[in-house]
Amino acid sequence: MLAHSGASSDPGDAGKATGEIVDETAQMSAAVDVVIAGHSHSRLNLSVPNASGEGDKLVVEALSYGVAYDRVDVSIDRATGDVVEKSGAVPDTRHDEVAPDAAIGDLVRGYADRIAPLARRVVGGSDRPLTRANGQLGALAAAAQRELTGADVALVNPGSMRADLDAGPLLYEELFAVHAYDFPLVRLRMSGRELLDFLAGLRTEGADLDLYAARPAQIDPGADYTVSANEWMATGDGFPALRDARRLAGSLGSETEALVRYVERHR
């Protein structure tokens, strides 16, 4: 089983962990023998007992950014097709012990040269760092998406931002790194009451559903509002109020396009 779901591991023991993938694995059919986890950037190598109490499942997760990899060995009964033995390991990736592939290097450099005029283009500048931690980058992204879409309210998921911006000149490649997924933006129609209930619910449900928002100072419960969000937020199960809202037609652009245009316009 491949799962974009993870858990928090014990730094001193990859065989101990708690979290979503541990709970979900325990609920899986006993027919599942091995789960390859992800998402949480943890090192996992543990056994999770089946809910029935008979047997267990192996769960492995190889950190992130290629610094380690999963290695799973299974022994299978040729007569029955059953897995009779399994083991896992998460070795570190030792790049210094591997000779680079010259052909791959040439391929990457060729594409890097082709996109350099776009990637290295100076889009604007900032006199201070704009980071996810201080909230200024999220506010910038929300303002940019509100302006591009012409929406009354723009909602930005912090999880879609993957890099901070340093003070000084801002290059296109730096803005692209902020929105590495570069989701398309969509517009939704919501009543003021629906929007207020949605925002209030975020505050009570926890930080995992925290959002940055650019919006009017006051929201009238009796009025209708145009709301912009990225397509993942508008179609997934994480934000039911957005998923169930009426979607307005039209192609609007992407997260990166919004940020680039905003920085250019306000440079």
Give me some keywords for this one:
5'-nucleotidase,  domain 2; 267 residues; three-stranded mixed beta sheet; single chain; globular; 14 strands
Mean pLDDT reading = 91
Shape: globular
Structural class, from helix and strand content? alpha+beta
Question: Order of strands across the widest beta sheet?
Answer: 12-9-13-11-14
Largest sheet: 5 strands, mixed
Q: What is the CATH architecture annotation of the largest domain?
A: Alpha-Beta Complex
Provide the gyration radius in Å: 23 Å
Distance between the termini: 48 Å
State which percent range the strand residues make up.
25-35%
* The CATH fourth-level homologous superfamily of the largest domain: 5'-Nucleotidase, C-terminal domain
Which stretches of 5+ consecutive residues score pLDDT under 50?
205-209
Folded structure, characterized:
The chain is an alpha+beta fold. It has two domains: 8-89, no CATH class; 117-265, 5'-nucleotidase,  domain 2, CATH 3.90.780.10. Helix content is 30%, strand content 27%. The chain contains eight helices and 14 strands. It has helices at residues 20-27, 102-119, 136-149, 172-178, 192-205, 231-235, 240-243, 255-265; strands at residues 8-10, 13-18, 34-36, 43-49, 56-62, 71-76, 83-89, 122-126, 153-156, 168-171, 185-191, 212-214, 224-230, 246-248. The longest helix has 18 residues, at 102-119. The termini are far apart.
Task: Give the gist of this structure.
This protein has 267 residues and is α+β, with helices and mostly antiparallel strands. The protein is built from eight helices and 14 strands. The longest helix has 18 residues, at 102-119.
